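Input for the complex:
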Amino acid sequence: MIKITSLTKIYRVGKEMFKAVDNVSLNIGAGEIVSIVGHSGSGKTTLLSLMGGLTAPDSGSVVVDGVNLWSIDDDQLAELRNSKMNFIYQFASLLPTLTALENVLLPTMFSRRKKDKKDAARLLDVVGLADKASAYPAELSGGQQRRVAIARAFINDPGIILADEPTGDLDEDTEAEIIGLFRHMNREQGITFVIVTHNTALAAATTRTYRMTGGRIVVA
Amino acid sequence: MHPLSLSTKNLTRKGFRSAALVFALALVVCLLFAGAIAVKSVSTSITLGAQRLGADLMIVPEGYEDTARTTLIAGKPSVFYMPESVLDRVRKVKGVRRATPQLFIQSTDFECCTYVDVLLIAFDQQTDFTIGSWLKEAIDRPLADNETIIGRSIPVSTGTTMKYFGTPLTVVGDLATTGLEYIDHAAFMTMATARQMIRNSRVDAEQTLDIGEDMISTVLVQLDPAITPERAKVFVEYEIEGVKALTSQDVIGSVKRQLQVLIRTIGGIGLSLWLITILLIGIVFSMAVNERKREIGLLRAMGAKRKNIFGMITIEAVLLSLAGGVLGLVAGGFLLIVCREPMRNAFKLPSLWPEPMFIFLAALFAVGAALVSGVVAAAWPAYKSSRMEPYQAIRKGE
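Predicted:
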């Protein structure tokens, strides 16, 4: 499903060159739940962004469902992101001017697939926020906002979810709910999850764990 | 969800900032629209004034040049007199092809319409070359003695007989509305009728007309094509003492100069405001895009294409521009109505509105200018934001 080969990403800070991702290769199969752990600055988030085509590598390749992300043009890459994958972030990623329901529907604005309010409402129901459909982000708690973002990640029926610290800053109960939700979606819909986390409980719930240090995968 | 809805919500998020931009654009549109209408209105009035002269030269008694200008341009009725002998002398001046006299009588006390300011204009049908075409449109025959054709503002219907200084006159037609007091409040009659009216006023009227039998108000002159009005003016004023000759340029010159000042002022202010507004919109949109980097990165991560981001920001600019445009038109219209009277006094001009098509085109141009300003100013921030790498946009927005 995701094939990463010799992937390297270099940042330039002044005159210094810094390898955020250093010659990483890995394969993630369809339906897997994979976690990437490591200290802050170890390159986890950059690797996740490279997998999602959000940033271009300096060398190496990312192939998703047989498509090399950096051999297609920007529009095709946007379409691929929209139809095959979605992202969950640790930070508040909801648009403040939209209601929970509208936030869930947001990816459909760029999609050819027809999804309507009923689909969005169903997903809000799945994440336990059916009664918050018309609430604005400011009216929701941090955990509720995260769950809306998770519902949004599923609206276009993606095959892959790339999650960056999805349970960060959340209490244990909400964290357990989210882990349960991921496993449920994985089991029911066969969605592949790649989760960057510090959370050992979350990492333990995944089928495979990669550890990163200094931009390299050190343990698989 | 429609992209338009997203743009609208983005604009309402920073309500005060959006309102300030709408206000700035409205100011430009207001100035452009009101300015164009005002300039056109003044210009139309000048043209009509010149057309009203209908002659190459207008000969008036010395000392009454300004009064005559005011009568022709502002349409304010006024009277002045000189001996009829001037007519024969004018005819003998080199370059004069035709000359015709007119006599103005002012009345404020008619039997029909007390206290309405009316200018009676007597003309010589044999030699006239200025009024005939207007009258032809109204009755298509020569005017008989004791008949009159009136301006549209005089509230009398055709067939009514009225007494002017003891002289009965029958209204045989009226002229179309011109918006010029001079014509709209005038009653045209033959020279013979005017002479009879002067005589009758001495025996059969409450008010006596103190006008001699051989007096006229003006001589209108048509020149040979070989001579310029300016040259003929010199000949007339040299050969005939006590008169002044006004050319079309004399009549409209001062107003034209004021008009040019008005155009330069409005144009200068409008252009400066326009440039400042474009700059302001550009800065505000750059700030807005900077503030929304993460949001734009998130949208890109969800599958938004570059053109979607560019479109979203451009739509915001278009919505702001349209709002500013409509508000500016309303404000401009209001300004024109409020300033109509002061303008009329300042330029001593009748307040003529331009044709509806001109007003429509001016409105279209003003709103179009606002749209162009908004879109041009937002184009660079929109382009820049659409080219941001999603990951960098998300990180820098943190």
